[in-house]
Write a structure and sequence with these properties.
single chain, mainly alpha, Arc Repressor Mutant, subunit A, two-stranded antiparallel ribbon, 2 strands, 64% helix, globular
Length: 149
């Protein structure tokens, strides 16, 4: 007997399929040693590379993670050669996070894979269907965000 058709179940199932597709694509590209959190942090650092500095506390705040969690992730990223921590002149306690060329290459490959998965998701859908999907998703998100109900 199959579970009842509910929006929550269908979204969860779709999320699982998308995650599996991305992981398979990453594994084929040699990115399988990169965790999801590391990929998101690389993306964040890449998008903010023109800022005067991104620090561990920015990662903690942006990703809503504890200091100990951020420390562990960043130490592993440093060990893997994905980031460097560079001291800043105005505060010896602060270390600016910088992407290495290896991480930048990973980011570009990740973005390519995301585009490929997005193309696969949209295959066979008209522009109107895609727009309707986004409209429905926005309505569902608003339903969940509305705390006065």
């Amino acid at each position: 007997m199959s579970p009842p058709k509910t929006i929550g179940f269908e979204i969860k199932s779709l999320g699982n399929l998308i995650k599996r597709c991305i992981h398979e694509s990453a594994a084929q590209s040699g990115l399988d040693g990169l965790t999801g959190a590391q990929g998101w942090i690389i993306g964040y650092l890449y998008e903010h590379k023109d800022k005067p500095g991104v620090f561990q506390r920015d990662i903690e705040k942006t990703f809503k993670i504890r200091r100990s969690t951020a420390t562990g992730i960043l130490q592993l990223m440093e060990k893997k050669g994905l980031i460097t921590r560079e001291p800043v002149a105005y505060d010896a306690r602060l270390k600016r996070l910088q992407l290495t060329p290896k991480a930048i290459a990973h980011h570009e490959l990740i973005m390519e894979k995301i585009r490929e998965v997005e193309e696969r998701l949209r295959r066979g859908l008209s522009e109107e269907e895609v727009n309707a999907f986004f409209m429905l998703m926005e309505k569902i998100k608003r339903n969940l965000e509305d705390v006065n109900d």
